[in-house]
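help with this record:
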Amino acid sequence: MKRESMEPRIDYKKIAPEAIKALSAVDRYARTSKLEPTLLELVRLRASVINSCAYCVDMHSKDARLRGESEQRLYAVSVWREAPFFTARERAALGLDRSRHRGEGEPRPRRGVPPRPRTV
């Protein structure tokens, strides 16, 4: 079976270096905060799922595993509201992450692929 490669991404460092500096500063701040490293990885993974970034999902799931996160919880990040094994603190963090990204239910547009019709 032939595996398709991940879609190439924009070189943000080249196109928007100041934005990358700002995002890096936020990430540095988060890493020095009192938030647990595993919680930060769960939030990063959730953001990657929301943004439909296969490269980022791969990277953050591996980073979370290296920090001791269970596969069961990683698989459930996309359905965290229904999963029974996230704490109130983790749920709060995972819920806030959605507000910083696309609106609820808005799929990421793919180049050359028309959006699927919404079902009601």
